[in-house]
Design a protein that fits this description.
alpha/beta, six-stranded mixed sheet, 6 strands, about 10% strand
Amino acid sequence: MTEPPEVVRNHKDSLFRLLFREKKELLELYNALNNTAYTDEKNLEICTLENAIYMNMKNDVSFLLDSQLSLYEHQGSFCPNMPLRDLGYVARQLERYTANQSLYSSRLVKIPTPHFVVFYNGLDKQPEQRILKLSDAYERETAEPELELKVLMLNINYGCNKELLERCKTLQGYSILVHRIRTYAKEQPQEEAVDRAVQECIQEGILADILKKQRTEVMAMSLFEYNEEEELRKRDQMTLEQGREIGLRQGEEQGFRRGEEQGFRRGEEQGFRKGAKQEMQRGIRVAADIYKTMGTSFKEAVAHIAEAFSFSLPEAEQEVKKYW
């Protein structure tokens, strides 16, 4: 049996992009999301950023329809930075859209209305719908942010958003395929799990056309995405456990040692708190160093460390800045 491909973070086309790169499937998805009934594919103009690299990721799907610029992204792991990424994507899209117009004119330059959606199917538990806001990332909170960007995140894991998936059979088929791969991979090798899931979907008429025509490519993408998902999950869990264990264990040892030297309970409690605080700092430093070595972004590291040490995001950001 061949070894699974090495998991790397550089962009590779995803199965989601493969499934929704044609106008027919995009129109189906748009209608399902907006409760519309468009049928003429000629009215849809695909404008995906195929060659523009932003933060090591290409824009997944972008298109114009009915004066709306839709930017759709797929995420196999939760990313709170999607509003910031979408800000970069939409800026490039609008720059292309207005390339032949003067922004210094006295006439108002009209642009399509942007709409941002993330289709999430990661393993972390998430609600069926949530709104991610650019203002959540602001270091200084403000009641009325002058620049805001909202992203609708939809959970498309099997069993979630059933009505939406019923309206879009391509999206529903994708959800079923991923669910079966994950289920079968618990009891058999990954390659066999992917092959079994693909065969069953073809036999049951789920994504049958594309799975028959591009079976090899679909299997390669599915295997890569599954391995990447598992690797990221293991990496994040290992890093969290390491940082937590180092900080708490060394903090306990230092605290108790100082308490014993002082010889009375108050000194013990004070020593424990002070030692725990010092060693927790050491644990945070170790965790931050590990994340930097692994190429994790600053924002992702802050989110993980906030969870591991029970900090708020602003508190975690302040701590991580000391060692970044």
